[in-house]
Specification:
The structure holds two protein chains of two kinds. By secondary structure, chain A is of the alpha/beta class. Chain A has a single domain, classed as Rossmann fold (3-Layer(aba) Sandwich). Chain A has eight helices and twelve strands. In chain A, strands 6-9-10-3-11-12 form a six-stranded mixed β-sheet, with helices on both faces. The mean pLDDT of chain A is about 95. Chain B is of the alpha/beta class. Helices cover about 25% and strands about 35% of the residues of chain B. In chain B, the strands form three sheets. A ten-stranded mixed β-sheet of chain B has the order 5-4-8-11-14-16-19-22-24-26. The chains are: A alpha/beta, B alpha/beta. At the A-B interface, α2, β7 and α3 of A face α11 and α12 of B.
């Protein structure tokens, strides 16, 4: 499904350009959930931005494909239409644009690009009601401008709402657990787990083991200095939690 | 909250000072440079034989215009007095706009289609004019409706589901047609060109003309008083709620011509009217001059809602051509509990100088000003409002949204004045500026004069840049860049768009999109 090969990328321009991703390789087959853990500055968020095509990040080597398609050659909106979704670490406020207007516009833009018919207003509303219920989201919140005046937890839940509405094929969750209390964490995890399917893949970026108690990964990768230095099963996350990154990093060198 | 007395405050937010982020801004600037004139779809010229006044301005020009309209003696005298006063006045220079000195002798002050002004049937309207309005999307398919041919209005209207709008079409200096006149007449509403009103309702015109904007008011208003050619006249009688939206569509066509329209709207006690104004002009290399005066009078318990979508030709990307728009618009809340509401969407003109204002004379009267001003390319806009609180418990509300792109300059200039007798007056002002790119400017200049300790004045101002974070977030959800910008801009101006009548809001939304096309790379 997602295949990253020997990827290198820099941030910044000209003299100031800094290599953050440095020869990273990773494969997430369809149906699997992989976790990426790593210390601050390891390149976790950069990886999510490079995959989704944010400006200011330059790929200097290697490649990445989603079901064989070269995603790095696409515009951000094309990647989205191809099924790539990023749950942002810091969701952005969009004043004056109600959540429902925003998500429905996005949904139809993606469908149009894929040559599918638009979703009707009643169909959208029905689906929205079901998703909102599952995520414990107030109906009023969906009429308010995107993320404006939302608490940290509400913003993260809204990311998952968008994800469940758009039904992407591959999801990148960038520190979705940060800023969540235990209950919200469980709600968010329930949403994510509901999307687990044989045809979908997922990359869960996190600092902490606790999210992985709720979203069980098939594999755990440790990212440091821009590349994967160690890969293991769920037990690796527990070990990191207990021993910290230092031990694992020292071992890998 | 602010309670300063006679305080003047100035915020200056040049985006040249804003730190430029990498990536998108460089591209934004590139794209803004590419701003193409073909975006302006109303830029065509209609080739039609015109009846013109001799070029230039003199007492003879004033007499010529007055004679053309067969005006009564009092009106000619009124014009001449204004003209003589104008000769002694100086062009104001305090606005934050720059343009070459205007040679007032280089313009034509009267231009009318040779075939005449009003037509009896569809067959008499010059084909060129019909085609021009058709291209602009004014409902000329129902040409007979536009012409107010009896009976045609009802059937054509029944055939349409959307709310009906009566149109007064002004082509250069004359009104060529007014629709739905018969039906409006049944409700007692008078809607006609001001030239006609001078003959048919002289008592009303004489009573109210110049009563809100006196002939001596300012340089451009005085000029307008001397040479005004046509415009709309509306009178809503006591207790009548006007059964449909009224609108005037202004088209400037002739070369080197000034358009000086004069609009007068009177809402008698407990009357209500919603009035819309639309404007376009062809793309010409020379600057055209537009100096209008609009006067609104609201008596006790009356309400006037005045909406404008201004899309005059803004000039090309080098700043060549375009309309100089110097407009005096003022509403007088003369009666108690009256309300006047201005909503404007300004996307055109090379230079805009315009401050729709409210004089809150009646106790408990309410003034509102909702504005979206977009500047792109080399456009300059200096616009805002004046809220003059004279009566007790008068309230005013100002919401201004400025959007600057390209190398344009956008200034909000507003005055809130609380007079001695305005016990318990209240004002709320909110001015937001959005910058696209880093070569444009946004300025907020709010003046406050307060002579009462019990006045409540609130002022909020923000300046933001269209952010890279927002754009990326929206695009990551699958929305292409141009649509993403439109979505963000629409969100920014939403509060004001909501104030527009439905159909106008849709048009305004499209206009915003076109005006900002290519402003982000």
């Amino acid at each position: 499904m997602l295949k990253i090969e020997n990827l290198s990328a820099t941030v910044g321009e000209g003299e100031a350009a800094k290599t953050i991703i440095n020869g990273l390789s990773l494969k997430v087959p369809a149906g699997e959930v992989h976790a990426i853990m790593g210390p601050n500055g390891a390149g976790k968020s950069t990886l999510s931005y490079v995959l989704t095509g944010r400006e200011g990040y330059e790929v200097t080597g290697g490649g990445a494909t989603l079901d064989g398609a070269d995603i790095l050659a696409m515009d951000p909106e094309e990647r989205a239409a191809a099924g790539l979704f990023l749950s942002f670490q810091y969701p952005v406020e969009i004043p004056g644009v109600p959540v429902m207007t925003f998500v429905r516009t996005a949904m139809n833009a993606q469908r149009k690009k894929r040559g599918e018919p638009e979703i009707s207003a009643p169909d959208y509303l029905k689906k929205s009601r079901d998703v909102a219920k599952m995520l414990n989201l107030d109906a009023d919140m969906l009429k308010r401008p995107v993320n404006v005046g939302f608490s940290g937890g509400e913003k993260k839940r809204l990311e998952i709402y968008q994800m469940m509405m758009l039904e992407p094929r591959f999801m990148v969750l960038d520190e979705t657990d940060s800023g969540l209390d235990i209950d919200a964490l469980r709600t968010v995890a329930d949403g994510v787990n509901a999307l687990r399917a044989p045809e979908r893949g997922m990359l869960v970026i996190t600092h902490y083991q606790r999210l992985l108690d709720h979203i069980k990964p098939d594999k755990v990768h440790v990212l440091a200095k821009g590349r994967i230095i160690k890969t293991g099963g769920p037990e690796l996350a527990h070990r990191l939690e207990k021993e910290g990154y230092d031990g694992v990093l020292a071992e890998a060198v | 909250m602010m309670d300063c007395c006679g305080g003047i405050e100035e915020h200056d937010d040049d985006c040249a000072d804003v730190k430029v982020k990498e990536g998108i801004d460089a591209k934004t600037v590139e794209a803004a440079k590419r701003l193409e004139s073909e975006n302006y779809s109303a830029g065509f010229i209609t080739d039609i034989e015109m009846d013109m006044a001799p070029i230039g301005l003199s007492e003879d020009t004033v007499r010529f215009i007055s004679a053309k309209k067969n005006e009564p003696e009092w009106l000619l005298e009124w014009r001449l007095e204004a003209y003589r006063r104008w000769l002694t006045m100086e062009e104001p220079s305090w606005a934050r706009v720059h343009y070459p000195k205007i040679d007032f002798q280089a313009y034509y002050y009267y231009a009318a289609p040779k075939a005449g002004a009003k037509y009896k049937s569809i067959d008499d309207v010059p084909r060129e004019i019909l085609e021009a309005y058709e291209k602009l999307g004014i409902p000329l398919r129902e040409a007979e409706v536009l012409l107010g041919v009896e009976g045609a209005a009802d059937t054509a209207a029944a055939a349409r589901e959307k709310p009906r709008v009566a149109v007064d079409a002004v082509f250069d200096s004359v009104s060529v047609a007014t629709t739905f006149r018969e039906e409006l007449k049944k409700a007692g509403v008078i809607f006609m060109s001001i030239s006609e009103a001078v003959h048919e309702h002289p008592e009303l015109v004489k009573k109210y003309l110049g009563s809100v904007v006196p002939t001596s008011d300012n340089f451009y208003a005085t000029l307008n008083s001397a040479v005004f050619s046509d415009g709309s006249f509306v009178y809503i009688p006591k207790g009548v709620r006007c059964p449909m939206e009224l609108s005037t569509y202004f088209r400037m066509n002739a070369e080197n011509t000034g358009q000086f329209e004069r609009t007068l709207i009177i809402a008698d006690e407990a009357a209500y009217v919603s009035y819309l104004e639309g404007c376009t002009a062809p793309m010409r290399d020379e600057n055209q001059l537009h100096a209008a005066v609009v006067e609104l009078v609201a008596l006790d318990d009356a309400e006037i809602k005045y909406s404008t979508v201004q899309n005059w030709w803004p000039g090309d990307e080098e700043g060549k051509g375009g309309i100089f728009n110097f407009v005096t618009k003022r509403g007088d809340c003369r009666g108690a509990r009256s309300k006047i509401s201005w909503t404007q969407v300004e996307t055109g003109s090379a230079v805009t100088w315009k401050y729709p204002s409210c004089i809150l004379r009646g106790d408990d009267s309410v003034g509102e000003f909702y504005s979206i001003a977009v500047t792109n390319g080399r456009q300059q806009a200096d616009t805002g409002t004046k809220m003059i609180h004279l009566g007790k418990r008068t309230r005013s509300r100002i919401i201004s949204k400025g959007i600057s792109a390209g190398k344009s300059d956008n200034t909000y200039r507003g005055l809130v004045s609380i007079h001695k007798k305005a016990e318990g007056a209240r004002n709320f002002t909110q001015c937001d500026s959005l910058l696209i790119g880093d070569r444009c400017g946004a300025h907020t200049v709010p003046y406050i004069e307060n002579r009462r300790a019990d006045a409540q004045l609130e002022h909020e101002a923000t300046t933001t840049k269209l952010s890279e974070d927002q754009l990326f977030y929206v695009r990551q959800r699958g929305i292409a860049e141009e649509q993403a910008v439109a979505l963000l801009v629409n969100g920014f101006v939403r509060e004001v768009l909501q104030e527009l009548p439905m159909e106008f809001a849709v048009e305004a939304q499209k206009l915003l999109e076109v005006s900002l096309e290519g402003s982000v790379g």
